[in-house]
Each structure stands twice: as structure tokens, then as C-alpha cells.
Amino acid sequence: MVIDWLAAGVDPGQAILFIQSQVIEHAELHLLLSMMTPLGWLERVPPTRPASKADRPRSVDLRFLGYPLLQSATS
Predict the structure, then answer these.
(1) How far are the Cα atoms of 9, 10, 18 from residue 14, in angstroms, in the given order?
(2) Are 31 and 70 in contact (CB under 8 A)?
(3) pTM tops 0.70, yes or no
(4) Rg of the Cα trace of the chain?
(5) Do residues 43 and 52 make contact, with C-beta atoms less than 8 angstroms apart?
(6) How far apart are the C-alpha atoms of 34 and 67, rounded to whole Å?
(7) pLDDT band at 53 (very low <50, low <70, confident <90, very high)
(8) Closest Cα to residue 69, out of 19, 28, 24?
(9) What distance in Å separates the CA atoms of residue 25 and residue 38, rounded to the nearest whole number?
(10) Are 75 and 33 in contact (CB under 8 A)?
(11) What are phi and psi of 38, to 5 degrees?
(12) What's the N-to-C CA distance of the chain in angstroms?
């Protein structure tokens, strides 16, 4: 995947490339954010709202709702 990014023009001098699973702090920050963020906030995230009502009207788990938290832990 890194080769694809480099071929697409990502400059390694300006971008930080890392393997997410090897950064323990990333998983820890995601865990802390998921424990502190109210479920109502996660249900109002625009990308998750239409899919959650169409696919699973009553059963939505943290894997689906926690992705925005995972993105925020990366940045």
C-alpha cells in the first residue's frame, strides 16, 4: 500500500507514513476517546447516520460508530 501512495505522489519528506498497528499509543487514545464520547454524539455523525438506519435500524455496534474516533486518534 505504501508503494501505491508513493506512486500516487505522496512525498515522504512532507508526510508521515507509519504502520498504525505498531503504534500502541494510537490504540490507547482510541480506547480513551471511545470511553469518553457519548453514544448520542457518535450516532449524529453524518456519514454513519444514513447507513445505520438503512442497514441496521436497531443494532449498531462500536465497530461501526467508533471509526470516526479512530480517525481522530490518528490525526
Answers:
(1) 11, 8, 13
(2) no
(3) no
(4) 16
(5) yes
(6) 10
(7) low
(8) 28
(9) 22
(10) no
(11) -65, 145
(12) 19
